[in-house]
Write a structure and sequence with these properties.
Helix content: under 10%
Distance between the termini: 12 Å
Largest sheet: 5 strands, antiparallel
Number of helices: 1
Structural class: mainly beta
Number of domains: 1
Number of strands: 5
Order of helices and strands: EEEEHE
Length: about 110
Amino acid sequence: MKLVLTVEVPSIVAVELGRYRRVTYVPGDCELNSRVRAVRRIVRADGTLESERVEVEVFVPEERRRAVEAPRSAWITPEYLRCKALVSKNRKSLAAFLDSGDRELTLAEES
């Protein structure tokens, strides 16, 4: 099974600041559409499940890896990054997983 989601990857993003609308680069989240190998529900401190976001292990293409501003601990392998995905942007793709009540979905890697 292959699952492709829109995820939020911590990156450096361009923004316009100031009166003269100068472009500067600041840390922020950049959207990436890519395949994921694991999806996990986020458990809050009080034990409830977060309904807005899920944690994913996403494949980051080689040409995009240099722009990722994530700590080393977020990288599971040199290709896969642990980050967040918004449920609202992936509602159809995540519907079966969210309705199942499972806390984790691990997908088999295709060879």
